[in-house]
Amino acid sequence: MKNKIFMYLFLFAVLFVIFQYMNEKTIFESQEKKINTLTEKLTKAKDSISSLHDKVLDLNYFTLQGNENAMTYFESGNYDPAEVEAMVSDIIYDKNLERGGNSLIPVAGINGTMRVNKLKFLNHKWIQADFSDGTYWGEMVIEYFFDENRELQLTTIGSTLYPTN
After folding, report:
1. For residue 40, what are the CA distances in angstroms to 33, 34, 35?
2. What is the CB-side half-sphere exposure of residue 105 using CA atoms within 13 A?
3. What radius of gyration, in Å, describes the C-alpha atoms of the chain?
4. Which helix (DSSP H) or strand (DSSP E) does residue 58 occupy?
5. pTM greater than 0.70
6. What digits encode the pLDDT tens for the residues 88-124?
7. Residue 85 is inside which H or E element, if any?
8. Residue 89's CB: how many other CB atoms inside 10 A?
9. 141 contacts 126 by C-beta, under 8 angstroms
């Protein structure tokens, strides 16, 4: 009888070990599948980040802060490019407060006064600006430079007014 009990215990232990092995194998395979899926997602995310980083570098090429030659131009004249950008932006936005609208905008407002909404510094000489009167809007290119007296000169080079639909 003792032998039968030990045999049953041995068979039960073998079945328990087989059950544990199969259960752990299933868990391991499931975790390995999750790891592979997450690794693929991580690789795709890194590729996306790299692609977006390259795109940002391309977009920043036509900016004052992203153009090494433009920054060198200002630094050679003892100007800080960031301060120049802030100062010129402030002056252009302050012109929005002038009576009759911003004097840099060559188009009169139809439904109010035209005001500059956004600026993008292309380099050390030109700015692209968006303007609107609330209904009509357009864009213009502004040339800026500092004269021999270190005074800021602003000139509108060209503009376009978009049709409304």
Report:
1. 11, 10, 9
2. 31
3. 34
4. helix 2-60
5. no
6. 999 999 988 888 778 888 887 787 888 899 999 988 8
7. helix 81-94
8. 15
9. yes
